Amino acid sequence: MIAEQNNETLSHISDQYARVFKDSTTQAAPRTFRSPGRINLIGEHTDYNHGFVLPASVDKAVYFVIAPREDDQVLLHAVDLNEDYQFSLNDLSKPSQTWAVYQLSIIEQIHKKGLKIKGFQAAFGGDVPLGAGLSSSAALECCLLFALNEVFELGLDRFEIVKMAQKAENEYVGVQCGIMDQFASTFGQEASVIRLDCRSLDYAYFPFPMEEYRLVLCDTQVKHSLADSAYNTRRQECEQGVATLREFDPNIASLRDVSPELVAQHRDKLGEAVYMRCKYITEEIKRVEEGCQDLVDGDLKSFGRKMYETHQGLQHEYLVSCPELDFLVDQTLSMPEVLGARMMGGGFGGCTINLVAVNHIEAFEAKMKDAYRQAFNIDLPCYKVRITEGTNEVM
Ligand code: ADP
Ligand code: MG
Protein backbone atom coordinates (compact mmCIF):
# COMPACT_ATOMS: atom_id res chain seq x y z
CA MET A 1 0.00 0.00 0.00
CA ILE A 2 1.35 3.41 -0.86
CA ALA A 3 0.64 6.53 1.08
CA GLU A 4 0.21 9.07 -1.64
CA GLN A 5 -2.33 7.72 -4.07
CA ASN A 6 -5.37 9.89 -4.52
CA ASN A 7 -8.05 7.41 -3.50
CA GLU A 8 -10.93 9.36 -4.91
CA THR A 9 -9.33 9.70 -8.33
CA LEU A 10 -8.30 6.10 -8.26
CA SER A 11 -11.67 4.67 -7.33
CA HIS A 12 -13.29 6.78 -10.04
CA ILE A 13 -10.95 5.30 -12.63
CA SER A 14 -11.60 1.76 -11.33
CA ASP A 15 -15.35 2.37 -11.52
CA GLN A 16 -15.02 3.60 -15.07
CA TYR A 17 -12.95 0.56 -15.99
CA ALA A 18 -15.73 -1.68 -14.64
CA ARG A 19 -18.40 0.28 -16.50
CA VAL A 20 -16.63 0.50 -19.87
CA PHE A 21 -15.48 -3.13 -19.94
CA LYS A 22 -18.47 -4.78 -18.24
CA ASP A 23 -19.31 -6.82 -21.36
CA SER A 24 -15.72 -7.73 -22.13
CA THR A 25 -14.90 -11.44 -22.41
CA THR A 26 -11.50 -10.80 -20.82
CA GLN A 27 -11.10 -13.02 -17.78
CA ALA A 28 -8.00 -11.47 -16.24
CA ALA A 29 -8.51 -9.28 -13.18
CA PRO A 30 -7.33 -5.72 -13.78
CA ARG A 31 -4.24 -4.36 -12.05
CA THR A 32 -3.58 -0.72 -11.18
CA PHE A 33 -0.43 1.30 -11.78
CA ARG A 34 0.56 4.83 -10.88
CA SER A 35 3.13 7.27 -12.30
CA PRO A 36 3.55 10.72 -10.77
CA GLY A 37 4.12 14.11 -12.32
CA ARG A 38 7.39 15.83 -11.54
CA ILE A 39 8.84 19.15 -10.46
CA ASN A 40 12.38 20.46 -10.80
CA LEU A 41 13.75 22.20 -7.71
CA ILE A 42 16.80 23.77 -9.30
CA GLY A 43 18.93 23.23 -12.42
CA GLU A 44 17.10 24.89 -15.30
CA HIS A 45 18.41 24.71 -18.90
CA THR A 46 21.35 22.72 -17.57
CA ASP A 47 20.25 19.39 -19.10
CA TYR A 48 21.36 20.07 -22.68
CA ASN A 49 24.60 21.50 -21.32
CA HIS A 50 25.31 18.12 -19.71
CA GLY A 51 24.98 19.54 -16.21
CA PHE A 52 22.82 18.58 -13.22
CA VAL A 53 19.09 18.82 -12.60
CA LEU A 54 17.24 18.27 -9.32
CA PRO A 55 13.77 16.86 -9.99
CA ALA A 56 11.32 15.02 -7.73
CA SER A 57 8.11 13.08 -8.24
CA VAL A 58 4.97 14.50 -6.63
CA ASP A 59 1.60 13.44 -5.25
CA LYS A 60 -0.24 14.06 -8.50
CA ALA A 61 -0.27 11.07 -10.77
CA VAL A 62 -1.58 9.24 -13.81
CA TYR A 63 -3.22 5.86 -13.09
CA PHE A 64 -3.83 2.92 -15.41
CA VAL A 65 -6.30 0.16 -14.58
CA ILE A 66 -5.35 -2.50 -17.07
CA ALA A 67 -5.89 -6.15 -18.00
CA PRO A 68 -4.42 -8.29 -20.79
CA ARG A 69 -6.59 -9.62 -23.63
CA GLU A 70 -6.27 -12.76 -25.70
CA ASP A 71 -6.47 -10.91 -29.05
CA ASP A 72 -4.32 -8.16 -30.57
CA GLN A 73 -6.69 -5.32 -29.77
CA VAL A 74 -5.89 -2.34 -27.54
CA LEU A 75 -8.98 -0.75 -26.00
CA LEU A 76 -8.39 2.54 -24.20
CA HIS A 77 -10.75 4.68 -22.19
CA ALA A 78 -9.56 8.16 -21.18
CA VAL A 79 -11.57 8.73 -18.02
CA ASP A 80 -10.93 12.47 -17.66
CA LEU A 81 -12.06 13.15 -21.21
CA ASN A 82 -14.65 10.37 -21.45
CA GLU A 83 -13.18 9.31 -24.80
CA ASP A 84 -12.34 5.90 -26.24
CA TYR A 85 -9.82 4.67 -28.73
CA GLN A 86 -9.24 1.19 -30.12
CA PHE A 87 -6.45 -0.08 -32.34
CA SER A 88 -4.68 -3.27 -33.34
CA LEU A 89 -1.13 -3.91 -32.16
CA ASN A 90 -0.31 -4.38 -35.85
CA ASP A 91 -1.46 -0.94 -36.90
CA LEU A 92 0.43 1.89 -35.25
CA SER A 93 -0.69 4.65 -37.60
CA LYS A 94 -1.23 8.06 -36.02
CA PRO A 95 -4.48 8.06 -34.05
CA SER A 96 -7.48 10.35 -34.35
CA GLN A 97 -7.40 11.01 -30.58
CA THR A 98 -4.42 13.22 -29.73
CA TRP A 99 -3.89 11.57 -26.33
CA ALA A 100 -3.52 8.12 -27.95
CA VAL A 101 -0.16 9.13 -29.48
CA TYR A 102 1.38 8.55 -26.05
CA GLN A 103 0.07 4.99 -25.80
CA LEU A 104 0.99 4.22 -29.43
CA SER A 105 4.45 5.66 -28.89
CA ILE A 106 5.02 3.12 -26.10
CA ILE A 107 3.77 0.18 -28.18
CA GLU A 108 6.12 1.25 -30.97
CA GLN A 109 9.09 1.19 -28.58
CA ILE A 110 8.09 -2.28 -27.37
CA HIS A 111 8.01 -3.47 -31.00
CA LYS A 112 11.36 -1.82 -31.72
CA LYS A 113 12.90 -3.71 -28.80
CA GLY A 114 11.58 -6.95 -30.26
CA LEU A 115 9.42 -7.60 -27.18
CA LYS A 116 6.08 -9.38 -27.46
CA ILE A 117 2.81 -8.33 -25.88
CA LYS A 118 -0.83 -9.22 -26.46
CA GLY A 119 -3.72 -6.82 -26.64
CA PHE A 120 -4.97 -5.14 -23.49
CA GLN A 121 -7.81 -2.98 -22.20
CA ALA A 122 -7.30 -0.05 -19.91
CA ALA A 123 -8.98 2.91 -18.31
CA PHE A 124 -6.61 5.71 -17.40
CA GLY A 125 -6.71 9.21 -15.95
CA GLY A 126 -5.38 11.16 -13.03
CA ASP A 127 -4.78 14.50 -11.38
CA VAL A 128 -1.58 15.76 -13.02
CA PRO A 129 -2.62 19.07 -14.58
CA LEU A 130 -2.07 18.91 -18.35
CA GLY A 131 0.45 21.21 -19.96
CA ALA A 132 1.19 22.99 -16.68
CA GLY A 133 4.82 21.93 -16.44
CA LEU A 134 4.44 18.79 -14.32
CA SER A 135 4.99 16.58 -17.35
CA SER A 136 1.74 14.67 -17.53
CA SER A 137 2.93 13.22 -20.84
CA ALA A 138 5.94 11.53 -19.23
CA ALA A 139 3.70 10.21 -16.44
CA LEU A 140 1.38 8.73 -19.05
CA GLU A 141 4.22 7.07 -20.96
CA CYS A 142 5.99 5.73 -17.89
CA CYS A 143 2.77 4.43 -16.37
CA LEU A 144 1.76 2.45 -19.43
CA LEU A 145 5.21 1.04 -20.06
CA PHE A 146 5.67 0.08 -16.41
CA ALA A 147 2.22 -1.56 -16.45
CA LEU A 148 2.87 -3.52 -19.65
CA ASN A 149 6.26 -4.59 -18.29
CA GLU A 150 4.54 -6.08 -15.24
CA VAL A 151 1.45 -7.51 -16.96
CA PHE A 152 3.39 -9.17 -19.81
CA GLU A 153 6.55 -9.85 -17.80
CA LEU A 154 8.82 -8.09 -20.28
CA GLY A 155 11.79 -8.07 -17.92
CA LEU A 156 12.65 -4.37 -18.34
CA ASP A 157 14.37 -2.60 -15.48
CA ARG A 158 13.44 0.94 -14.46
CA PHE A 159 16.35 2.40 -16.36
CA GLU A 160 15.25 0.75 -19.60
CA ILE A 161 11.71 1.97 -18.98
CA VAL A 162 12.94 5.54 -18.63
CA LYS A 163 15.00 5.40 -21.82
CA MET A 164 12.23 3.78 -23.84
CA ALA A 165 9.66 6.29 -22.60
CA GLN A 166 11.95 9.18 -23.53
CA LYS A 167 12.52 7.69 -27.00
CA ALA A 168 8.76 7.20 -27.35
CA GLU A 169 8.24 10.92 -26.79
CA ASN A 170 11.14 11.84 -29.11
CA GLU A 171 10.31 9.50 -31.97
CA TYR A 172 6.55 8.92 -32.12
CA VAL A 173 5.15 11.93 -30.30
CA GLY A 174 7.85 14.11 -31.87
CA VAL A 175 8.84 16.15 -28.80
CA GLN A 176 12.60 16.48 -28.29
CA CYS A 177 12.52 16.24 -24.49
CA GLY A 178 15.53 15.29 -22.41
CA ILE A 179 15.47 12.38 -19.98
CA MET A 180 14.62 14.25 -16.76
CA ASP A 181 10.82 13.95 -16.83
CA GLN A 182 10.66 10.20 -17.37
CA PHE A 183 13.54 9.69 -14.96
CA ALA A 184 11.87 11.59 -12.13
CA SER A 185 8.49 9.95 -12.67
CA THR A 186 10.06 6.49 -12.56
CA PHE A 187 12.83 6.88 -9.97
CA GLY A 188 11.25 9.32 -7.51
CA GLN A 189 11.38 8.63 -3.77
CA GLU A 190 9.35 9.92 -0.85
CA ALA A 191 10.66 13.24 0.55
CA SER A 192 13.77 13.14 -1.66
CA VAL A 193 15.01 15.00 -4.67
CA ILE A 194 17.13 13.33 -7.32
CA ARG A 195 20.35 14.91 -8.47
CA LEU A 196 20.65 13.63 -12.00
CA ASP A 197 23.86 14.03 -13.94
CA CYS A 198 22.62 14.65 -17.47
CA ARG A 199 25.91 13.52 -18.96
CA SER A 200 26.57 10.20 -17.21
CA LEU A 201 22.98 9.62 -15.97
CA ASP A 202 24.46 8.90 -12.54
CA TYR A 203 21.99 9.90 -9.87
CA ALA A 204 21.81 10.39 -6.13
CA TYR A 205 18.99 11.13 -3.69
CA PHE A 206 19.02 14.06 -1.26
CA PRO A 207 16.56 14.53 1.59
CA PHE A 208 13.87 17.13 1.11
CA PRO A 209 11.85 17.23 4.32
CA MET A 210 8.17 18.09 3.89
CA GLU A 211 7.13 18.69 7.51
CA GLU A 212 7.55 22.44 7.76
CA TYR A 213 7.67 23.55 4.16
CA ARG A 214 5.69 22.61 1.09
CA LEU A 215 6.05 23.35 -2.55
CA VAL A 216 3.38 25.35 -4.28
CA LEU A 217 3.21 25.83 -8.03
CA CYS A 218 1.58 28.99 -9.36
CA ASP A 219 0.44 28.60 -12.95
CA THR A 220 0.68 31.85 -14.95
CA GLN A 221 -1.68 30.38 -17.57
CA VAL A 222 0.42 32.00 -20.26
CA LYS A 223 2.69 30.54 -22.92
CA HIS A 224 4.41 33.21 -24.96
CA SER A 225 5.16 32.35 -28.57
CA LEU A 226 8.85 33.17 -28.11
CA ALA A 227 9.43 29.89 -26.29
CA ASP A 228 10.50 27.68 -29.19
CA SER A 229 12.68 30.14 -31.07
CA ALA A 230 14.39 31.32 -27.90
CA TYR A 231 15.08 27.73 -26.86
CA ASN A 232 16.86 27.08 -30.16
CA THR A 233 18.80 30.35 -29.89
CA ARG A 234 19.91 29.55 -26.34
CA ARG A 235 21.18 26.14 -27.39
CA GLN A 236 23.15 27.74 -30.22
CA GLU A 237 24.58 30.38 -27.91
CA CYS A 238 25.72 27.69 -25.47
CA GLU A 239 27.35 25.78 -28.32
CA GLN A 240 29.05 28.96 -29.47
CA GLY A 241 30.36 29.49 -25.95
CA VAL A 242 31.79 25.98 -25.91
CA ALA A 243 33.43 26.49 -29.32
CA THR A 244 35.07 29.72 -28.17
CA LEU A 245 36.27 28.33 -24.84
CA ARG A 246 37.67 25.21 -26.51
CA GLU A 247 40.28 27.44 -28.10
CA PHE A 248 41.71 27.82 -24.59
CA ASP A 249 41.14 24.26 -23.44
CA PRO A 250 40.49 21.47 -25.98
CA ASN A 251 39.16 19.20 -23.19
CA ILE A 252 35.98 21.25 -22.93
CA ALA A 253 33.10 19.25 -24.43
CA SER A 254 30.17 21.18 -22.95
CA LEU A 255 29.50 23.98 -20.48
CA ARG A 256 29.56 21.29 -17.81
CA ASP A 257 33.34 21.35 -18.17
CA VAL A 258 33.57 25.10 -17.69
CA SER A 259 33.81 27.09 -14.45
CA PRO A 260 32.17 30.48 -13.94
CA GLU A 261 35.70 31.86 -13.44
CA LEU A 262 36.79 30.72 -16.91
CA VAL A 263 33.70 32.33 -18.41
CA ALA A 264 34.52 35.61 -16.64
CA GLN A 265 38.12 35.44 -17.79
CA HIS A 266 37.11 35.24 -21.48
CA ARG A 267 34.21 37.67 -21.37
CA ASP A 268 35.53 39.86 -24.21
CA LYS A 269 36.22 36.96 -26.48
CA LEU A 270 32.76 35.45 -25.88
CA GLY A 271 30.89 38.65 -26.60
CA GLU A 272 28.28 40.02 -24.20
CA ALA A 273 25.27 37.85 -25.17
CA VAL A 274 27.11 34.52 -25.17
CA TYR A 275 28.98 35.55 -22.02
CA MET A 276 25.69 36.15 -20.21
CA ARG A 277 24.28 32.77 -21.27
CA CYS A 278 27.46 30.90 -20.28
CA LYS A 279 27.65 32.76 -16.99
CA TYR A 280 24.14 31.65 -16.04
CA ILE A 281 24.63 28.02 -17.07
CA THR A 282 27.97 27.53 -15.34
CA GLU A 283 26.68 29.18 -12.16
CA GLU A 284 23.47 27.14 -12.28
CA ILE A 285 25.34 23.84 -12.59
CA LYS A 286 27.38 24.84 -9.55
CA ARG A 287 24.21 25.92 -7.74
CA VAL A 288 22.68 22.46 -8.05
CA GLU A 289 25.72 20.91 -6.40
CA GLU A 290 25.76 23.53 -3.64
CA GLY A 291 22.00 23.20 -3.19
CA CYS A 292 22.45 19.49 -2.56
CA GLN A 293 24.93 20.33 0.17
CA ASP A 294 22.30 22.64 1.71
CA LEU A 295 19.91 19.68 1.81
CA VAL A 296 22.51 17.47 3.46
CA ASP A 297 23.01 20.25 6.02
CA GLY A 298 19.24 20.59 6.46
CA ASP A 299 19.48 24.25 5.48
CA LEU A 300 16.30 24.98 3.50
CA LYS A 301 16.80 28.73 3.91
CA SER A 302 20.03 28.60 1.98
CA PHE A 303 18.41 26.31 -0.59
CA GLY A 304 15.55 28.79 -1.00
CA ARG A 305 17.99 31.64 -1.62
CA LYS A 306 19.46 29.62 -4.46
CA MET A 307 16.00 29.31 -6.03
CA TYR A 308 15.84 33.11 -6.10
CA GLU A 309 19.33 33.28 -7.60
CA THR A 310 18.26 30.87 -10.30
CA HIS A 311 15.33 33.08 -11.14
CA GLN A 312 17.54 36.16 -11.28
CA GLY A 313 19.83 34.37 -13.70
CA LEU A 314 16.99 33.17 -15.90
CA GLN A 315 15.43 36.64 -15.89
CA HIS A 316 18.47 38.86 -16.44
CA GLU A 317 21.17 36.65 -17.98
CA TYR A 318 19.54 33.75 -19.77
CA LEU A 319 16.54 35.90 -20.77
CA VAL A 320 13.85 33.22 -20.76
CA SER A 321 11.45 34.65 -18.19
CA CYS A 322 8.42 36.86 -18.85
CA PRO A 323 6.53 39.63 -17.00
CA GLU A 324 3.98 37.21 -15.49
CA LEU A 325 6.67 34.91 -14.02
CA ASP A 326 8.73 37.85 -12.76
CA PHE A 327 5.66 39.36 -11.15
CA LEU A 328 4.86 36.17 -9.26
CA VAL A 329 8.41 35.76 -8.02
CA ASP A 330 8.64 39.45 -7.04
CA GLN A 331 5.43 39.16 -5.01
CA THR A 332 7.06 36.61 -2.73
CA LEU A 333 10.11 38.73 -1.93
CA SER A 334 8.28 40.50 0.88
CA MET A 335 6.77 37.30 2.32
CA PRO A 336 8.85 35.82 5.16
CA GLU A 337 6.89 32.56 4.87
CA VAL A 338 8.41 31.96 1.42
CA LEU A 339 11.98 30.66 1.47
CA GLY A 340 12.46 30.57 -2.29
CA ALA A 341 10.68 31.05 -5.59
CA ARG A 342 11.60 30.83 -9.24
CA MET A 343 10.21 30.09 -12.66
CA MET A 344 10.20 26.37 -13.43
CA GLY A 345 10.64 24.83 -16.88
CA GLY A 346 11.75 26.26 -20.20
CA GLY A 347 10.33 29.73 -19.58
CA PHE A 348 8.08 32.33 -21.25
CA GLY A 349 5.17 31.04 -19.19
CA GLY A 350 4.22 27.96 -17.19
CA CYS A 351 4.58 27.82 -13.42
CA THR A 352 6.64 29.31 -10.65
CA ILE A 353 7.73 26.95 -7.89
CA ASN A 354 7.58 28.30 -4.34
CA LEU A 355 8.93 26.92 -1.08
CA VAL A 356 6.31 27.98 1.48
CA ALA A 357 5.86 27.40 5.23
CA VAL A 358 3.11 24.78 5.71
CA ASN A 359 0.95 26.83 8.04
CA HIS A 360 0.93 29.82 5.69
CA ILE A 361 -0.02 28.03 2.51
CA GLU A 362 -3.66 29.02 2.35
CA ALA A 363 -2.86 32.67 3.01
CA PHE A 364 -0.04 32.52 0.48
CA GLU A 365 -2.33 31.20 -2.22
CA ALA A 366 -4.99 33.80 -1.49
CA LYS A 367 -2.46 36.65 -1.68
CA MET A 368 -0.94 35.38 -4.92
CA LYS A 369 -4.30 34.84 -6.61
CA ASP A 370 -5.47 38.28 -5.59
CA ALA A 371 -2.34 40.06 -6.77
CA TYR A 372 -2.23 38.19 -10.08
CA ARG A 373 -5.87 38.96 -10.80
CA GLN A 374 -5.31 42.63 -10.12
CA ALA A 375 -2.20 42.82 -12.27
CA PHE A 376 -3.14 40.59 -15.22
CA ASN A 377 -6.86 39.90 -14.85
CA ILE A 378 -6.16 36.15 -14.93
CA ASP A 379 -7.20 33.50 -12.40
CA LEU A 380 -4.11 31.85 -10.93
CA PRO A 381 -4.33 28.10 -10.38
CA CYS A 382 -2.09 26.99 -7.51
CA TYR A 383 -1.02 23.38 -6.96
CA LYS A 384 0.27 22.25 -3.57
CA VAL A 385 2.59 19.32 -4.02
CA ARG A 386 4.33 16.86 -1.75
CA ILE A 387 7.30 14.84 -2.88
CA THR A 388 6.32 11.17 -3.02
CA GLU A 389 7.59 7.95 -4.45
CA GLY A 390 7.84 7.30 -8.19
CA THR A 391 6.05 4.83 -10.44
CA ASN A 392 4.60 1.77 -8.73
CA GLU A 393 1.81 -0.77 -8.72
CA VAL A 394 -1.10 0.15 -6.47
CA MET A 395 -2.06 -2.88 -4.41
P1 ADP B 1 2.82 18.25 -20.04
O1 ADP B 1 3.60 17.00 -20.29
O2 ADP B 1 3.69 19.42 -19.74
O3 ADP B 1 1.74 18.09 -19.04
P2 ADP B 1 2.19 17.85 -22.80
O4 ADP B 1 1.56 18.73 -23.81
O5 ADP B 1 3.54 17.33 -23.07
O6 ADP B 1 2.11 18.64 -21.41
O7 ADP B 1 1.27 16.59 -22.55
C1 ADP B 1 -0.11 16.78 -22.28
C2 ADP B 1 -0.92 15.81 -23.11
O8 ADP B 1 -0.82 14.48 -22.56
C3 ADP B 1 -2.39 16.13 -23.11
O9 ADP B 1 -2.74 17.06 -24.10
C4 ADP B 1 -3.02 14.76 -23.37
O10 ADP B 1 -2.99 14.45 -24.74
C5 ADP B 1 -2.05 13.81 -22.66
N1 ADP B 1 -2.53 13.51 -21.30
C6 ADP B 1 -1.86 13.69 -20.15
N2 ADP B 1 -2.59 13.30 -19.08
C7 ADP B 1 -3.76 12.86 -19.57
C8 ADP B 1 -4.95 12.33 -18.99
N3 ADP B 1 -5.09 12.21 -17.67
N4 ADP B 1 -5.95 11.97 -19.82
C9 ADP B 1 -5.84 12.10 -21.15
N5 ADP B 1 -4.76 12.60 -21.75
C10 ADP B 1 -3.73 12.98 -20.99
MG1 MG C 1 5.06 16.81 -21.81
Fold and architecture overview:
The strands form three sheets. A six-stranded mixed beta sheet has the order 5-4-6-3-1-13. Strands 10-11-9-12 form a four-stranded antiparallel beta sheet. Strands 2-7-8 form a three-stranded antiparallel beta sheet, sandwiched between helices. With 395 residues, it is α+β, with helices and mostly antiparallel strands. The mean pLDDT is 96. β7 and β8 (203-207) form a beta hairpin. It contains twelve helices and 13 strands. The radius of gyration is 22 Å and the shape is globular. The chain is 42% helix and 23% strand. It has two domains: 4-208, Ribosomal Protein S5, domain 2 (2-Layer Sandwich); 213-385, Alpha-Beta Plaits (2-Layer Sandwich), CATH 3.30.70.890. The chain binds adenosine-5'-diphosphate and magnesium ion (MG). Adenosine-5'-diphosphate (ADP) is lined by residues 62, 78, 80-81, 98-99, 102, 125-126, 130-131, 133-137, 140. Residues 62, 78, 80-81, 98-99, 102, 125-126, 130-131, 133-137, 140 line the site of adenosine-5'-diphosphate (ADP). Pfam families: GalKase_gal_bdg (PF10509), GHMP_kinases_C (PF08544), GHMP_kinases_N (PF00288). One of its GO terms (cellular component) is cytosol. Residues 23-68 form the Galactokinase N-terminal domain. One of its GO terms (biological process) is galactose metabolic process. Its EC number is 2.7.1.6.
